[in-house]
Design goal:
alpha/beta; about 30% helix
Length: about 350
């Protein structure tokens, strides 16, 4: 038994991570199509020991699929997702094109898998920084109502794609050689630098990335008035997003109760021993699935506040893993067709 599956954007960093995640989690695949832009057609990729040829992402190539995982950007999703759905394919989309549409579930399975029953063919995967944050906030709100969240994100260049990763490496070599780095895919030099702006600025002074984090958190937590303010920063890290978070509760929450609650929550690993300098760091967490939390402490400026540090692999929980977890939840809830043919 298995699913006739397509990955759209298969040759990108997230597409490759999707393929690896499907294999590592033994997702039941009956037939696999790897789709990308015309320039990638003919490339070969491996899944479960078999070699597959990348085909062009077209409506016709999505016609006999039960499920499609999209990670090719807004223009491709906007152009192809409606065609896929019209052909009976369920789409899990990693772009921002459909996230805030009222009839499209925006899902992090540890938080709101129940909304999958309302899907109409499209399920949206959240922004990478949103996914890791809401897993933690959802666990903590069982202790007390959350009144306000302040978050600063430290986002790796892989969030901007393979070209940005290559640019960081090239710029780092240039700086070490005494040369001036030349920005191309990232707006400013990123090697040995921080850029406090991701995506374009909006009229309210926030960036689009910061407002994604705010609006998507509200939708996933099903709290339309949830108070969250964010600053998003691009940092010279290849893989792994970090977040410094302050949560203000309606009444005091002890550090120990927060630590115990997070340690028992699905998808979270607590690493919090400051005396021994144990806390999550993105370099060591790249390639791992959980959301890691450390530096849990009371807020000296607020009697009902807690501060903590969150790290996750943005290509996994922030994208590929979350998409596959959604697919698994669809199967568990019998919201997806399953084929009887074997993998080809």
């Amino acid at each position: 038994m298995g699913v006739r599956l397509a990955i759209v954007g298969a040759t990108g960093v997230v597409g490759q991570a999707m393929l690896q995640t499907l294999e590592s989690r033994d997702f039941p695949v009956a037939n696999l199509k790897l789709l990308a832009s015309a320039r990638s057609v003919g490339e070969r990729m491996t899944f479960r020991g078999a070699s597959y040829t990348v085909e062009e992402a077209t409506p016709e190539n999505l016609g006999d699929c039960d499920l499609a995982l999209f990670s090719a950007g807004n223009p491709v999703s906007e152009a192809l997702v409606p065609h896929a759905v019209a052909r009976g394919c369920v789409v899990i989309d990693n772009s921002s094109a459909f996230r805030l549409k009222s009839d499209v579930p925006l899902v992090v399975p540890e938080v709101n898998a129940h909304v999958l029953s309302h899907h109409r063919g499209i399920i949206a995967n959240p922004n990478c920084s949103t996914a890791q944050l809401v897993v933690v906030l959802h666990a903590l709100r069982t202790l007390a109502p959350i009144e306000r969240v302040v978050v600063s994100t430290y986002q790796s260049v892989s969030g901007a794609g393979k070209e940005a990763m290559e640019e960081l490496l090239a710029q780092s070599a240039a700086v070490l050689a005494g040369e001036s780095p030349v920005p191309q895919h990232v707006r400013h030099p990123i090697a040995f630098n921080l850029i406090p702006a991701i995506d374009h600025f909006l009229d309210n002074g926030y960036t689009k990335e910061e407002m994604k984090l705010t609006l998507e958190t509200r939708k996933i937590l099903d709290e339309p008035a949830f108070r969250l303010t964010a600053t998003a920063v691009r940092v010279p890290v290849l893989v792994g997003h970090s977040e410094a978070v302050t949560v203000e509760f309606a009444h005091p929450v002890s550090v120990e109760s927060a630590r115990q609650t997070l340690a028992c929550a699905d998808g979270i690993v607590v690493e919090d021993d400051p005396v021994r300098h144990i806390y999550p760091r993105p370099y060591e967490k790249a390639g791992h699935d959980p959301v890691y939390v450390g530096r849990i402490r009371g807020d000296v400026s607020h009697p009902c506040g807690l501060n903590f540090w969150v790290v996750a692999d943005n290509l996994r929980k922030g994208a590929a893993l979350n998409a596959v977890q959604i697919a698994e939840a669809l199967l568990t809830r019998q919201l997806l067709r399953v084929q009887t043919s074997s993998l080809t």
